[in-house]
Amino acid sequence: MEEKLKQLQKEAAELLEKVKESKEVEEIRVKYLGKKGALTEVLRSMGSLPKEERPRIGQVANEVRESLEKSINETRERIHAEAMEARLMKETIDVTMPGKLPVQGSRHPLTQALDELKEVFIGMGFTVVEGPEVETVSNNFDMLNAPPNHPSRDFSDTFYIDENTILRTQTSPVQVRVMKQTKPPIRVISPGRCFRNDTPDATHSPMFNQLEGLVVDEKSTLGDLKGSLEIFAKHLFGEHTKTKFRPHYFPFTEPSAEVDVTCFKCQGEGCPMCKGSGWIEMLGSGMVHPNVLRNCGIDPEKYSGWAFGMGIDRIAMQKYGIDDIRLLYENDLRFLNQF
Amino acid sequence: MLVPIKWLKEYVDIEIGTNDLADKMTMSGSKVEEIRRWGDGLDQIIIGEIEKIDPHPRADKLVVAQVTTGEKKLQIVTGAENIREGDKIPLALEGVELPNGMVIEETYFRGEASQGMMCSPDELGIPKHMVPEEFKGGIWILDQDAPVGTLFTDTVPLIEDVIEFEITSNRPDCLSVMGIAREAAATLNAELRSPQVSLKEEGTDWINSAKITIEDTEGCFRYVARRISDVKIEPSPQWMQQRLIQAGVRPISNVVDITNYVMLEVGQPLHAFDAETIKNQHIIVRKAEEGEVFRTLDGVDRELSAGMTLIADEKGALGIAGVMGGEDSEVTEKTTSIILESANFNQDRIRKTSQELGLRTEASSRFEKGMDPELCLLAANRACQLIEELGAGKIDSGVLDEYPKPVVPREATVRPEKVNGLLGTDISMDEMIRTLNKLEIEAEMSGEIIKVTVPTFRNDLQQEADFIEEIGRIYGFDNIEPTLMKGDIMVGGLSELQKMQERIKNTLAACGCYESLTYSFVSPSSADAIRLPKESFKRDFVKLLNPLGDETSVMRTSILPNMMEVIARNIHRNVPEARFYEMGSVFYSKLGESEDVLPLEVTELIIGIYGGEENFFTLKGIVQHLFREMGLEQITFESESNHPSYHPGRCAAIYSNGKLLGTLGEIHPMVSKNYDIDKERCYAAELNGDLLLELASVAPLYKSLPKYPSIVRDLALVVGESTPVKSIEDIISSYGGDWLESFQLFDVYQGNQIGEGQKSVAYSMTFRHAERTLKDSEVDEVVQKLVKELKEQIGASLRE
């Protein structure tokens, strides 16, 4: 009987090895382990064995059954794995095919350049203020100490709506509005569209964008202006950036300075962009003229302030290497999607 | 302002090189634009003499010249016509390279050897427009006493560094070599030497037989005149010609050159009249009569107006004050006596006159910046001194000087504490005074303050801040320690409104939209292009008085025309599909009795799409997504068939609680046609940006996650095909009961399976109770009620 059991085990193992589908495994299980299966049959005939042999043969029979069950399970797993392997192979794709990109638009390069500038100043405690594009002559010129016959007031420079109303030529009138409404300390930047009567060409546009800033506080100094704008330049162009403050003239500041920064193309070596000088003219700045403070109801004996302004179009053009300002306002998708 | 360095060195000692000087001057406020080096490559040009000129045997237009250098005799063939035997000329010998890169070699012209070149001024680096008339197109003929065989540049002072300064509009005093010398002296801490003027006055006494009358005292503040007799008009000497050329002025003749030289030197424009043309030697400064016609020395008849100031005599006008002299009184080669004018005019008057006449001259551009009347006498005398030195005439004795109200130097005070307070420095009072003195500003200590007397040439120094700048810039901005802002810590950042704008930009970019930026001004015809109704208030444009052109002559009342232009430009450039947005201002003329003098500026947000798979619903999807991102609820879209810019069957008005938020739709083909768009369908959404921002709310509030399961019921309804789904949804919202959590349209079907003129609309509805599990029977009851309402109100039936 023991031999018969071993024979069954061997026979079943051989069958299982050849099996390809899980249906056949079930058939084998039924054939050997089912109610009428071969092993069951053998066990039923155990009664005919002598009493002393029964435990030993019973043990062998159990071992054979366990072994068979184990083999059947293993075979099932094997078949399952093979089937999965086959399916996965069938699902092979060409991974070098292009991905499906999500749609994504972008901000205009001018907005992106402005965002970067705004971020630096916001980090320095500035808030962002805005004002109307159509302004009064008073806010744009008179309050800002522009001499009554200053050429910038001419028809050839400024767009007029009527004798008292113009398209602002700078965003400084926003600062006038702030100074009239707010008690110092003041720390604001005012970005926005400005207009000048220039025929469009590669470097001129009748509409352009500026960012100006204003600080008014007790004991504001030219040293503060220098320190703050140096930090700004380093944030924007890197730690190695140097700044140069050259005395200049603006009607609304006194003293006034133009600020050059190390050319960010050549790092000061001299290149076509900086015309060999190693410097790029970046900002106009100065201490707010006492007349301007007075015009806005701020006592220049108690408060002083400093202000600065820069052209965003020019900064964006230099930063991105754009050689024609008109491209900024054409909005060709093939231009916009480069940023 | 072009300043030749050697000229500058006559008034101030400069020990450093040109580049260093340029850097230092820039840092003290006189910005250097450019450094030009004159006379490079002329060190091998020598002076030759033409001994003999013969015609070329085989060429009509050439001559063969025999030229000597003293040591060597050469034969030179030339086409120049202005040479004569005995002339002294600049000579380039074999092997010499000229500034224009030309290398001289021995050559043959039609068989005749040519062993060098006689040079023209432009071959020696003189710009063509600066070449004196006499040498135009010919060889540079030198003075008879030029030493043959010596270096050309020893005789003609051509080698020079010239610095071009940018002079700001507040510093007209720096439009002169003297003015720059003053700045250089202060910058370099060097001594300033003013020109020393003394005259021989060898002519006759003239002032008793002549007279100046200033009638127009508003227009003319001072009039100085001197007379010169025995005038001999000839070219001025080389040193003067070269300086003028280097300073950008073309030499003409001695008298004119001297007036220009003095103008460049001290800044004062001068004018010379032919004295014999002045009736009774009586000069009258008066206002022009309206419509008076006067011929200026450029030969143009000009019609004058009453606001202009004239220089006249007893019979008529001689010149337009400060702008240009007259043809009749012009100095010519025949002139034997001249009257030299050195005057001061009202800067505003000159500016207006020059503008009205469209005539801008060197003199007018100086006068309109404001000149110092104290300069008049110095300039007249300096010119006369040069006339004497150059032998151009004899100075008649005496000077006429009408100066009704001499300027009094202004006085001011400066507080050292304020200087250091504003600059952030620690400059001593002594140093402040020294600095001001160097700039020729009288300054003295008076207790705690500095008393200053402002020189008359510094009209820009009006108040304390102006002196602070003077002290600061000479001290050096680069010497001022950079500091951090003091005072209270301030928190920067964006306002809630600005953050919302950022959110709009982010959301639209994530929807594939590119931001466009377009001009705030448009063509008035844009109203027709987008088919605005005749009575629309958007046709009431804010107009520019002086636009660049019709295309940019009014402020936009809608961004739609700009968006259509952007779309059209991209279509015409074969960009197959695109999504754009722009957020910007539109401008409405002030309405009624508004107190604000300015037009109303309203923010508009526009989205425009075309091409690819775009349709009404892709755009509506973008808009709905935007609303969702901005936390806008209760938005409704209603069919709008009367908006002239849009397709009458594909346009929706967008409302928020009854307020019109905007319009969305397919662009009307007639609008597209106005932008030369033939086939492409375009879609746009115009939203009231201000209202949008007002309604937005993005502060999220957490709601606990559902604890009990939901029950989902699908509902397929058959309704008339023209029934808007909104009417179904309104009923579902109203009668869905408290447990209806959400519902969503998932299918619309039209076809054989349902009747003609009908459509099937299918919704999936989710029901949930917050505190317990719902029973199917409860939900079924709600759905049955809902179906009943749908049937009664809009005749909807359940799809079989």
Number of strands of chain B: 38
Distance between the ends of chain A: 86 Å
Task: Look at the helices and sheets of chain B and give the structural class.
Answer: alpha+beta
How much helical structure, as a percent, in the residues of chain B? 25-40%
Residue stretches of chain B low in confidence (pLDDT < 50, at least 5 long) are: none
What best-fitting shape of chain A do the alpha-carbon axes yield?
rod-shaped
Major sheet attributes of chain B: 7 strands, mixed
Largest interface: A-B, 79 and 83 residues
Radius of gyration of chain B: 42 Å
How would you write the strand order of the largest sheet of chain B? 26-29-30-34-33-32-31
Element-by-element helix/strand order of chain A: HHHHHEEHEEHEEHEEEHEHHH
The low-pLDDT segments of chain A are none
Radius of gyration of chain A over all CA atoms, rounded:
43 Å
How many helix segments of chain A?
Answer: 12
Write the layout of secondary structure elements.
The complex is a heterodimer of chains A (339) and B (800).
Chain A: H1 2-18, H2 22-33, H3 38-44, H4 54-90, H5 109-123, E1 127-128, E2 134-136, H6 137-140, E3 160-162, E4 165-167, H7 172-181, E5 186-195, E6 207-217, H8 222-237, E7 243-250, E8 253-262, E9 279-288, H9 290-295, E10 304-311, H10 312-320, H11 327-330, H12 333-336
Parallel strand pairs in A: 1-5
Antiparallel strand pairs in A: 2-4, 3-4, 5-6, 6-10, 7-8, 8-9, 9-10
Helix pairs in contact in A: 1-4, 2-4, 5-10
Chain B: E1 2-4, H1 5-9, H2 18-27, E2 31-38, E3 46-55, E4 63-68, E5 73-78, E6 88-93, E7 107-109, E8 112-114, E9 116-118, H3 152-155, E10 160-166, H4 177-188, E11 211-214, E12 220-229, H5 238-246, H6 254-266, E13 271-274, E14 282-287, E15 293-295, E16 301-303, E17 309-312, E18 317-320, E19 324-325, E20 338-345, H7 347-357, H8 362-367, H9 375-390, E21 394-395, E22 400-402, E23 411-414, H10 416-423, H11 429-438, E24 442-446, E25 449-453, H12 464-475, H13 496-510, E26 514-515, E27 521-522, H14 526-529, E28 554-555, H15 560-572, E29 578-588, E30 600-610, H16 616-629, E31 635-639, E32 646-656, E33 659-667, H17 669-674, E34 682-688, H18 689-695, E35 711-720, H19 725-735, E36 740-749, E37 758-767, H20 776-794, E38 797-798
Parallel strand pairs in B: 11-14, 26-29
Antiparallel strand pairs in B: 1-10, 2-10, 3-4, 3-6, 4-5, 6-9, 7-8, 12-20, 12-21, 12-22, 13-20, 14-17, 15-16, 17-18, 18-19, 23-25, 24-25, 27-28, 29-30, 30-34, 31-32, 32-33, 33-34, 35-37, 35-38, 36-37
Helix pairs in contact in B: 5-6, 6-9, 10-12, 13-16, 19-20
